[in-house]
Amino acid sequence: MRIGQLHGVGFAGVGLGEVLPEVRIFDVPFLFRTDQEIDKVYNQLDEYFALEYDKKGYILLGWIPVGWVHMFSTRKIESVSDLVKSKPWVWEGVFLAQETYKALGVNPVPLAITDVLMSLQTGIINSIYGSSQGVLALQWFTQLKYMTALRMSHGVGGVLISKQKFEKNIK
User: Fold this and answer.
1) What is the pLDDT of residue 171?
2) 130 is in which domain, residue-wise?
3) 120 and 79 share a domain?
């Protein structure tokens, strides 16, 4: 989008955060308990984030709820000690996830999202975090047997369009 090849993009939290880091507040582990809490916070912060994206040259067209984030694994994870013994994936460069694992005493394997499926297939990792929709769309479910009941966070998504292109098409 920055070089004009694309005019609009649907992003998950990581991509939204590349443009506006403070939007990652939605990804803080254990911040939300219910869908109603999420809706309330989105509604209260929507105008703020729309203005902040506008300052960066983008129009926030809307939020896309990615869903509740769970741990998925090849074997049961019923406790933090189970997680410590596993080989969990962490999204390379995502500070929030890395710090969460660090606080739990877990040593994750940092990988780009494009390397996760192959790493599951080869045993480099054996657990991941994500929404059920993401795990399905990325085909990771083919390598995983278990999902924790614990909701770790709620994944944020959104659609941004170049402000310049948006305004050009409105006139």
Assistant:
1) 60
2) 67-153
3) yes
